[in-house]
Inverse folding.
């Protein structure tokens, strides 16, 4: 709790690879609040939309910034936008933009009902980086309103098919903008983020060998994390820095764990069939994976020591690609129904299965770090592309352009 | 290493093909000419005609069989059922022929690529493709082919042969595909 004004200067290193790395500073002025008011309780079942006005002024770039902020907040489904010149809003966010040497923004958020300022913040960037700036502002408005961290500065890693048998690994913002190529060698397949957001771990076929690689995103250096005969596919990561993977080094694909230094290799399954796509529960204590040991591919869970095996899915004969929700409660997966792949969600105890998509083929769900969104790929509009949706919402938004073939999104953790 | 991995279709003389021997012309000896009078005219005429009609092209066909052509007929794709990796009865003759060919041609090694159709999910399909390549390999090994001569690699659904969305196309894609390489792998 603060008394008086708290001034905090943060040097924020934005996660952008190598050459385009930049920093910006901002100062934070938070008025004394005895108790932070939550305007929208996102945990309540009946969520109301908060009427909000966004008013921008200053540089012409402010309009672009405004539209990005509205797009961010709008997709959460928690806000309804009210024209600043008409009454009806409960909250107004004033954004003043100034472009001189770099980009300066002052944000003031006011509670119109109680007639007081609830947030004032100044942002300084040495370069004119409208999009990351807008996402930071969205995060702060969201935090004031919900009391929760926004995902607007997170990223997604995904694959783009460049030619037959070749796929490159890319990164983009949560809204699909600022896409950059990360790995273009060979055929990259399964991939995931380390929990601290500093590494990408991925499997790629190069010269007829499937190896698991580790990429340091800050230094942009690639290392081989695991290599053996056969197929080696990375699964997920744990908060303790463990990596789950599937390897057929002993003949059949089995589940293993290894640490981020390539040590502590441990075998967890022994079955004749296929064991693949292992992902950790948020606390790292359990693993969900796909196995055909029962005759068809189904989702199973087990302890991260390999004990306590439990089958999770029973409907349909093809259930694959699990993603564990950050609150531990749900597992999203791809299930085959009426000859098409669809996204489903089931409680991690196996109850309450729900179908979330129905148009076209939809595959490879990945939870956002706040658990409110899912990214997946779909061919509903022709070519495969990346889509995002709210887990309780109807709308599916395509975030990759129509002319590229994009698939397998993995949502990053919160990034600093 | 890279060189070892490059698939090379071999051009080689086929051991089993017999070299063409030019049919020997029969020299009609004078004595026989004399005897001719005793042979029936129809018989003699038939012999002469037979020898005269052997066309020149037949000589080439019999003497050189293209190794590439032979390999092509041997290394046909092994096909699989949807979401299965067991060897179907119709795939056995294909694998038997491959095993026999490898037994005869010791200098040849092979890569078996495992492929799937597009309907499953990418990651699972990679595992499925590998299982297919491995069951094909195991079948060949059971027929006496040294495992050292076979490398398996999976491409899952990533390298389709056929890109239409129908069963006939999917069937073509659910395959174990052979690539012939020259040198031994390490």
């Amino acid at each position: 709790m603060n008394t008086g004004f708290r001034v905090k200067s943060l040097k924020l290193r934005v996660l952008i690879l190598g050459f385009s790395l930049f920093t910006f500073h901002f100062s934070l002025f938070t008025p004394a609040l005895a108790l932070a008011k939550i305007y929208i309780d996102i945990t309540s079942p009946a969520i109301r939309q908060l009427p909000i006005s966004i008013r921008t002024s200053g540089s012409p770039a402010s309009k672009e910034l405004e539209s990005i902020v509205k797009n961010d907040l709008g997709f959460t489904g928690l806000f309804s936008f009210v024209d600043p010149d008409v009454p009806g809003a409960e909250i107004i966010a004033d954004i003043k933009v100034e472009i001189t040497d770099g980009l300066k923004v002052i944000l003031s958020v006011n509670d119109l009902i109680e007639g007081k300022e609830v947030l004032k913040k100044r942002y300084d960037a040495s370069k004119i980086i409208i999009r990351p700036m807008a996402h930071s502002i969205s995060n702060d408005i969201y935090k004031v309103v919900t009391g929760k961290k926004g995902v607007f500065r997170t990223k997604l890693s995904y694959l783009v098919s460049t030619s037959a048998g070749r796929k490159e690994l890319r990164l983009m913002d949560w809204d699909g903008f600022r896409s950059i190529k990360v790995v273009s060698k060979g055929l990259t397949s399964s991939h995931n983020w380390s929990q601290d957001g500093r590494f990408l771990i991925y499997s790629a076929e190069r010269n007829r060998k499937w190896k698991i690689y580790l990429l340091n995103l800050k230094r942009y250096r690639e290392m081989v994390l695991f290599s053996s005969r056969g197929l080696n596919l990375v699964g997920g990561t744990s908060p303790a820095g463990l990596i789950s993977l599937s390897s057929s080094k002993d003949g059949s694909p089995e589940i293993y764990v290894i640490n981020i230094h390539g040590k502590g290799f441990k075998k967890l399954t022994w079955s004749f069939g296929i064991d693949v796509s292992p992902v950790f529960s948020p606390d790292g204590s359990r693993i969900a994976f796909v196995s055909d040991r029962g005759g068809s591919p189904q989702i199973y869970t087990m302890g991260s020591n390999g004990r306590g095996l439990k089958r999770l899915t029973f409907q349909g004969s093809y259930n694959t690609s699990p993603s564990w929700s950050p609150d531990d409660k749900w597992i999203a997966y791809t299930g085959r129904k009426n000859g098409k792949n669809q996204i489903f969600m089931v409680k991690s105890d196996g109850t309450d299965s729900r179908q979330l998509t129905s148009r076209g083929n939809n595959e490879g769900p990945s939870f956002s770090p706040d658990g409110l969104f899912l990214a997946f790929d779909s061919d509903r509009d022709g070519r495969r592309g990346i889509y995002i949706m709210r887990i309780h919402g109807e709308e599916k938004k395509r975030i990759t352009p129509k002319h590229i073939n994009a698939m397998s999104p993995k949502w990053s953790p919160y990034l600093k | 290493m890279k060189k070892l991995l490059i698939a090379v279709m071999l051009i080689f003389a086929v051991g089993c093909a017999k070299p063409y021997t030019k049919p020997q012309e029969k020299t009609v000896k004078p004595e026989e000419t004399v005897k001719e009078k005793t042979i029936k005219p129809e018989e003699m005429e038939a012999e002469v005609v037979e020898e005269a009609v052997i066309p020149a092209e037949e000589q080439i066909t019999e003497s050189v069989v293209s190794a590439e052509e032979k390999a092509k007929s041997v290394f046909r794709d092994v096909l699989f059922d949807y979401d299965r990796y067991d060897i179907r009865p119709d795939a056995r003759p294909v694998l038997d022929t491959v095993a026999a060919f490898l037994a005869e041609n010791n200098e040849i090694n092979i890569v078996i690529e495992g492929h799937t159709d597009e309907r499953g999910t990418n990651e699972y399909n990679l595992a499925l493709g590998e299982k297919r390549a491995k069951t094909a390999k195991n079948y060949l090994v059971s027929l006496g082919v040294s495992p050292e001569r076979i490398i398996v690699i999976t491409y899952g659904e990533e390298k389709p042969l056929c890109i239409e969305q129908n069963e006939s196309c999917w069937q073509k894609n659910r395959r174990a595909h052979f690539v012939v390489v020259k040198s031994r792998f390490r």
